[in-house]
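Box 3.1 A note on notation
Throughout this textbook, protein chains are presented in two layers. The first layer is the amino acid sequence; the second is a token string describing backbone geometry. Keep the layers aligned when reading.
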Amino acid sequence: MSQYFDAYTDAHSYLPEQACLTWIRTDDLEQVIHALGADPAEASEETWTDLIDEDSGEDVLAARYGGWTLLMEPFTCHGTSEPVLSAGQEVYSLRWTVNHDVVVSYARAGEIVSAFDPLDLEGADRAWADRVSEDEWRRDWLAAALAQGEELSGLRLDRAWLARPHLAFTPAPVQRRPPLRLDADMRAAVAADARLAAIVADPAEDILPEVIAYAAELAVAMTGLDGPLVEEALRLIAEREWNSERARAAGRELHTLSRSLQEQARAVFDGTGGMYPGHDTEHGRLLLQDKAAQTLMCPLGTSRPLPTVARETARLAGLTHLNEDDDERQRVLYAVAYYVDMDDNWL
């Protein structure tokens, strides 16, 4: 349990709905600014509020504290880029969006050690952050993440700190897409799975149908969802038959199945299990089967771009409480889909 957790329980009131914060273990602030293609001599002094009010969408605040440098970005996420990962002995990053897409990552010597979504802690590797408890992550992910930042750096990121002027600079535009980045557990999953290795070997749009098919199979296998409709949906996905009349009909039937599973789950709910039900109760099993049905439904009969569909399909598969090995496979699939869709790394 972190001694700093309680100091951050009001952080939602003074931090914006989206941001990226990165703690870098280096006392060479100028090196970090240079790494992002900017000139320290041209940096100005601004506060966090100034940066948000300007709404430029480009500037970064940087400050040094002891042996650490902190990057604060309200609209961008340069903190997890390749140049920053190479700029410090340790790099701890927290980013979140208005859509509750949250990633906490930790790198050492330029390599991602661990990355996880604090809203979905199943299978997350937090051994490096053992002074922040799982209960604290579940109670308030932002307070827990900021407490972890203080555990590492000693910096109290409160209203007073944000009100001070810090260096503001504009990173140079990235000219090329960085290589796909995976953490250690994800790389181990790829090494043990030839199908996954083939997906990672060529992370481009033409590999996304395989990402969708693999994610759908993981969700179905984990939850035990079966029947002719499920078999038909898997066949349509495997054959890349996204927008035929049969695909659209299957999508509608899966929507009906999803609503039925939700109704059944409500009917058997006994008040236990909380917000994170597992496979060991009837209520939890039905809710997770609903997530599998939604995973199958996602690519069928949609007009959305393929990269967006692949990313959403992989995300939904991750909500079925996969076992440890499949959880790492799903994280790889999501990382590839995100990479193609956003032209950047998820981690």
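Residues 245-268 form the longest helix (24 residues). The radius of gyration is 22 Å.
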